[in-house]
Write a structure and sequence with these properties.
This protein is an alpha/beta fold. It has eleven helices and five strands; from the N terminus they run βαβαβαβαβααααααα.
Length: about 220
């Protein structure tokens, strides 16, 4: 059973999601208004991290998108549940480690499907996400996020993905999502990297790993 946390400062949204998720067989372990409140609850109760966090893009406590995602993404897969017409904010969430985005205008079944997909360790490549990225060409030219560079450095150097996850202290699914996002970013700028050898070439080109010494 997938453990899901809901973080949204609109109670009506949380109540609707909570009911739908439970009908779909998920365990809603937390529902609240901020990331800080969620983390405080975890500390007080000793609760394990949720498998998936549905997070509103902007909350009323003043925390930034990056702050919220970074505080959650190391232990849980984060799905942004918000409007999908703010590409700069979506780009910021992805760079911080979010797994994807589902629009609040989407049918509930789309949200449930996103939770199931993400909980299964698969990347979330939905229409809202693709549209937001495609409409913002700055994203295509952006450098890899710091965590993505670390994952690429170890993976391109030859470590299996499970070993990369263990070395960085992150979940295997998180490492896999990072590799998926890295491939998408390179494809967007016209430098596709469908294989591990291609990723090594890109990492060498970008100075992430050193080129092998010539014998």
């Amino acid at each position: 059973m997938t453990r899901v946390a809901l973080i949204d400062d609109h109670e009506s949204v949380r109540l609707g999601l909570e009911a739908a998720l439970r009908r779909d067989g998920h365990d809603v372990v937390y529902s609240g208004v901020s990331v800080s409140a969620h983390l405080a609850w975890r500390q007080e109760t000793g609760a394990a991290p949720a498998d998936v966090v549905l997070l509103d893009l902007t909350l009323g406590d003043g925390a930034t998108i990056t702050e919220n995602v970074v505080r959650l993404a190391g232990e849980s897969a984060v799905i942004i549940h918000s409007v999908a017409d703010r590409p700069a904010s979506v780009r910021e969430a992805l760079a911080a480690g979010a797994a994807g985005v589902v629009s609040k205008s989407s049918p509930l079944e789309d949200v449930l499907a996103a939770v199931r997909t993400t909980a299964g360790g698969e990347p979330l490549n939905n229409v809202e996400w693709a549209s937001a990225v495609a409409s913002d060409r700055e994203f295509a030219d952006a450098q890899l996020a710091a965590r993505e560079r670390e994952v690429l450095r170890l993976y391109a150097a030859g470590l299996p993905l499970k070993a990369v996850a263990d070395r960085l202290g992150i979940a295997y699914s998180t490492a896999k999502e990072n590799i998926t996002r890295i491939r998408v970013k390179y494809t967007d700028v016209g430098r596709p990297a469908p294989t591990k050898v291609d990723l090594l070439r890109r990492a060498i080109e970008d100075g992430i790993v050193d080129a092998p010494a010539e014998s």
